[in-house]
Amino acid sequence: MLQHHRRGTASRAFALAVTVALASASASAQDVITTLVTKANASGTATLSTFAYDPTGPNGGTIYAAGFGSGAELRRIENLSGTQTVTQLVAQSEWTLFLRNNDRNATGGNPTPHGLLLNPVAVGGHAPFTLAVISDGGGVVKVSGSTRNDLTQRLYSYNVASGTGPFTSLVTQAQLAFASGLANPVTTGSNANFGRQFAYAGDGQSVYIIDTSVGYGGLYRANIATGTVSRLFADSQINTEVAVLSSGGTDTIFFQGSPATGNTGGIDKFTSSGTASGRSIHVAAAAIADFMETVPSGIDITSMAAGPGGELYFNNTSSTSPDRRGIFKVDSEGRLAKVVSRTERGTTLGLGSPNSNTTRMQPRTVEHPNGFDVTQIMYVESGTASLIAGAYDFKVGDFDRDDDVDMNDLTLLRAAVGVRGGPAVGPGSYKYDLNGNNVVDWKDVKILQTFLPGLRNGDANMDLAVDLLDLNIIRDNYSTTASGTGGKTWATGDFASMDPLATTYAANASDANMVNLVDLQVFATTWLSVLRRPTLTFADLDANGYTGLFRQDVITVFSVPEPSAVALSVAGLTAALAWRHRRQRESRFPLTKQERT
């Protein structure tokens, strides 16, 4: 293992106290997303690439940030929730010198950090949150024009506890070449591509990372304490910042699906407990496409992170469906929901049309200004923005941001839900858009149902009861042909389209935004088959003033018995009960021979 100590004190030449008016201080105004560290603090003139978070730091914790390009450096940002103090730890020139093995005549090896995380537990004599591990995708180091993969650093560490280093080599490109079985590992011209952030194993001693190049492509595990590295499987068609969930000494690593599992656009997983278990599908591409209302080719997951409750956060950076870009989650029960959409990012953070990437995601638990703990996903807003943002992951359906889902929230949703495939919503309604397509309609109600089963099909007024109040709403809006903004919504009885049993509802269907027989059938199914209530009677129809076509359709879908049939049924039931009563009496008090005759 190579070890290099930084020389001189130039990199500690300045420490700037910067006062920033953080949007997190007024989270109620910005609702779901806020700026945590501005570009000026995070990377200065350089482009921000990655960061690490130390939750033990005072007043909101400490951030370590790294950029790339001209002026790139390693920075420490302290006092995250207050007046931030920025300190340069490593200048670009010093960083480059380390990557070139302190050889000023070498070329390549320019700092290009793609991952930067602190050790969550003690490792190799380093206390928790004192060792920054960095993955680097810079060019191959060459000495006298010859390729030197053994000097090309792909994974290395920095001692942040001292603030003076040292940098320590962990994994070189030559080690990756050995693990990948490449010929001539020191001089091979094949180039690795560690262009994504890694994730720690459950024991905190190793990391998992994806390489996307042809020669090295696949999932690797690298031990931070020993520097050993192994490739768990080969695949050059996945390009994901992986997430890891651990239980009982077994790590499950999650990444984007690929042709290898026939799940392009979905989420795959790989289980490791010392031995590999093989790859499998975790969430099918079809399920995510249905949730987002796009096609699998419109999904490109490049960043993932594991939450404290077993959630998996993932992004979508697809150019095919740019309006579906954002951060989403799949919880431990497999339910999908949006965290923040591209439109929310652009509008709330003042970015206009933001970069497609939402990378380097790192969840943390914070106290919301409304007084409850909530998960916040910190991430890098890439491109010209180059800032660190934080998106709150509220309970799905908690629209009034009080940490519960109740009638107040459903009242808000009922007022916000629009026609199927309706116009884009504005800033005040982003929160009701649960799949991130910038529309609030039938699909968002269906998503909420997965988290709130009491919101059943047919519950037009969203009071968690399917009753005659809802049927009367259907009656009042029945057999309309209006469409567009004047059309019907879930709140006015439009529960389905074309097929009452279908789980999809095309926005361009011939009966979209109408209340008709299909919706009545949905209501009747819930009433009869789910709630198992007795069918309606003609007295019910008369009492509620059901007339005309609506009355006839109610009779059909509920199979309302004719009054004469009801009378005959009652007479038959009375006779049967009388016969049963007589038999019971005879069994207790046997008749005499004279009584029987």
**Cα radius of gyration in angstroms:** 31 Å
Strand order in the sheet with the most strands: 1-13-12-9-8
The CATH architecture term of the largest domain is 6 Propeller
Q: How helix-rich are the residues, as a percent range?
A: 10-25%
Annotated CATH homologous superfamily of the largest domain: TolB, C-terminal domain
Shape: elongated
Runs with pLDDT <50, length 5+? 1-29, 565-581, 583-597
**CATH class identity of the largest domain:** Mainly Beta
Summarize the structure.
The protein has 597 residues and is of the alpha+beta class. The protein folds into three domains: 3-393, TolB, C-terminal domain (Neuraminidase, 6 Propeller); 415-558, no CATH class; 563-596. The longest helix has 26 residues, at 563-588.
Question: Key terms for this structure?
Answer:
about 600 residues; alpha+beta; Neuraminidase; 3 domains; 5-stranded antiparallel sheet; 14 helices; about 20% helix; about 25% strand; disordered N terminus
Question: How would you describe what is shown here?
Answer:
Helices cover 22% and strands 26% of the residues. The protein has three domains: 3-393, TolB, C-terminal domain (Neuraminidase); 415-558, no CATH class; 563-596. Helix 10 packs parallel to helix 12. The strands form seven sheets. Strands 1-13-12-9-8 form a five-stranded antiparallel beta sheet. A five-stranded antiparallel beta sheet has the order 2-7-6-5-4. The longest helix has 26 residues, at 563-588. It is built from 14 helices and 28 strands. The model is unreliable at 1-29, 565-581 and 583-597 (pLDDT under 50). With 597 residues, it is an alpha+beta fold.
